[in-house]
Model the fold of this input.
Amino acid sequence: MYKVLLLGATGGLGSAVYEELCKTRETNVIKVVRDTALIEEESVFWNFTSKPPEIFNRVDVVINCARSSDYQFNISFNKYLCDFLQTNVRLINISSNCVLAKPRSDFLSYFFKGDAYIREKKSIEKMSFGRKNITCLRPSIVLDEGGWQDFLHKCSLSDKVVIPCINAGSKLKIITRQSVAQHVVDASLNGVKTLSDEMYDKKLNFEKLISKKASYSKNVNNYFESFLKNILLGILNSFFMPDWLVYKLQSRLLSDKRNNDEKSDGEDILVEGMTRLYLFGEHTK
Done:
């Protein structure tokens, strides 16, 4: 019996991976939970803040689909996994193709390190370098997952979606949650590489992504229409800013945004901030 430990099985991607694993013959799937109230048959408890239990080294593969909104916490528990697992146990980590994102500016690209999310994923990938039993998979834009699903829903409600004119020809790489799950299961059962390339199903332009005609601004800034905001985010994304400070500032900004983010039917959308970079950066040419 092939034994698999699955972290994050209750999340969107984790639940899809669990369903795919259950379709596989002779596979014993054990869920890892960090809430004692969720412990059931075929599950194991780990608090994610101390050394993992010994069962982690008595399985064939560990699939990590777990992630919280705390960037430093994610890096910390991933380090526990990488350091604890023996070389005969394979680890599948979910990274993102956001690690390949960069501004459409040679000057900004030279200083670019990324926002908190990019830095987190780069840190987790760095832990995997040189470890042949670990793979970091890089899904592209997952249409039915988290923030991208919310963004596309808002675009569908809006009368007008405004993007920078210079980026009209950008090619966006997309994938579905189910397709990611299939890639994850295939990697766990059929061997792994140290690091994978991007995972995507197809490329398409922005208007096909949102299924409507876009409007174009004359501004070509990488992040915001406002020159000052563009400079400030460029500084925040630079290697001059320490990771811990970027994590703290971005967590606060996202918390404020969630508390004030409301969207009404018919309201126009101007694509700005990191969403603009992810969709229309140099990596999408």
Notes: The chain has ten helices and 13 strands. The radius of gyration is 20 Å. The longest strand covers residues 27-33.
